[in-house]
Amino acid sequence: MTEKNPLIEALPPATDYLSYLTIIEYNLNPESLPTLHQVLQDTKLTTNIGWDLVHLLVPLLPNSDECLQDIARLGNPREVILKVTESLRLIDFQGLEPDTDDDEPIAGEETVPAYHPAKTAPVGEDGSKTTQAVETPAPLPLPVLQFTSLLSMLSVLHTRIKTQYPSRFLSTSLQAILVSFNNAAKHKEELMSAIIQFVKTVSGTKRPNLPPRKSSTQLLSAKAVQASAPDPESDAAAKSPSASEAEIQRRLFQSFITHVFEDYVLSLTSDSDAPGLAWCSRLQEKLHPERTVPGKPSMTDKFILDEDLAARLTAVGSLVALARDLGMERKDLLPAMEGANPGSSLVPDSEDEFPKTAMDIPLSKVGSLFMFAAANVATVLYSTPKPKDAFSIFPDHQKVLHNYIASSSDMGTTIGTEPEAVLDAVLALAILAIEGDDVGEPTDSEDFNQYLQYLSLISSNSPSPSIRYHAFYLATTILRSNPSDVERLAFIKDTLEHCPFDNLKAAAQTSVFATPVALDTLAPYLFPDLTHDLTTTSITDSFATFQQNLHFYLATLNFYYLLFR
User: Fold this and answer.
1) Residue pLDDT, tens place only, 311-370
2) Buried/exposed code over 467-499 (b: 16+ C-beta within 10 A; e: otherwise)
3) Of the candidates 424, 504, 492, which has an alpha carbon nearest to the alpha carbon of residue 461?
4) How far apart are CA 427 and CA 369, in angstroms?
5) If we measure between CA atoms, which residue out of 495, 427, 421 comes closest to residue 455?
6) pTM (2 d.p.)
């Protein structure tokens, strides 16, 4: 006798929708998913219960993907979107990877299927003497599959909603995606691949995806496009979205991309002294190959040979290409870079505060910097078209340096301790300006000196050796670019007299002018009278002062020895 299937037997009108939902929840398991997929082809049924099945099906991925796609196609899109965005925020990205490679589950102990181990696929006999097992790439962790499937659902849902103001649904979804993306510490590239596909689908851009990395994105396989049900709550009398509404949606996508860019680049580690995208080092290697150390792998080679570093380039290249498809230009990024608003949120605090115009939507300040730097660096590294408007050291880069470095510092003490990816982007723009001979003119000597002091502090305080080197190179190069000997001398004097950092004083002594006037001017600061400092009543205090200033004393003695050789 054939066993009856409760999912078939209890179908409405045999039970009401609420009771049937309870029956599904009680009987839901991987074996019942094919039956549920069949049941969900009933549009009326899926419209009434589909939205309440999302949170039940997400943990059963990838087996439940077909059912989730059924709900996206046939459920009430306005209700389903709420459940999908809620599920996005609840994805648990903790513990994606095992603590050690040899961790084994204890017999009889229940394990959480958050990570799927690698498997091997057998190779069939082909007449040879031996057969070999070929390792198949490890499936992606469950949270990544959940993120991918939910974004695939949103791609369908947003195209189904018919309303005069679709941007209100879109902004909520984008914010949920950002929150979920921010919660993930690993597999960022796979998540970004899903994000880019979502934006392309909903915004209507047609550019194909860039080639994936080797270990790549085994995202849920694309399904054949199936017909979707109309929006059951569509107001036939409502007007179509206006041109301004379309512009708001486009701006939302642009803002979203800058926020994703910020989150991704700031999440990158600086292994092998590769801060962010290592734009400074790669630019210098491209522009001055003679400075590359023979026999040592260049940073450019590392970004080609290292799979993780190469994945960074692919991910960023996809974002830059998508931003270009969305109509974002370099000039659109400058106001965000120069403004004080960090652009930290896509969604207003209340529904009454939804943006009325596209310009009410802020771009991410840090994300705009990364996007601007990536586009400009590409003109050298990949020979993309150069912008028509020049970006000069004064006043353009001076503003950028102040906004991203000095504005966040307390009296200069934290300059150089900002995220290394931010420092790399800021300094890369300066390298491009210098190589293009776009130094410009500072407003006055005070602006000139302050700019050089910021660079000097970065060269002093940054924990990254490459960042320190590039900042020092920029400071000395821009100092030499000033045609006024008097102003150059004034900067060195000011550094020796007022700067509290001994290493900057030592660095200032490396610039020697070939006239006695320079030495006469700097002598009181290069060779100060130490009688008062080192002859106090306490020998302990005197020795502490001596130790504190030892670097400066040694640099001064070296300089003194050089003068009298």
Assistant:
1) 999 999 999 999 999 999 988 999 999 876 665 566 555 555 677 888 889 999 999 999
2) bbbbbbbbbbbbbeebeeeeebbbbbbbbbeeb
3) 504
4) 11
5) 427
6) 0.80
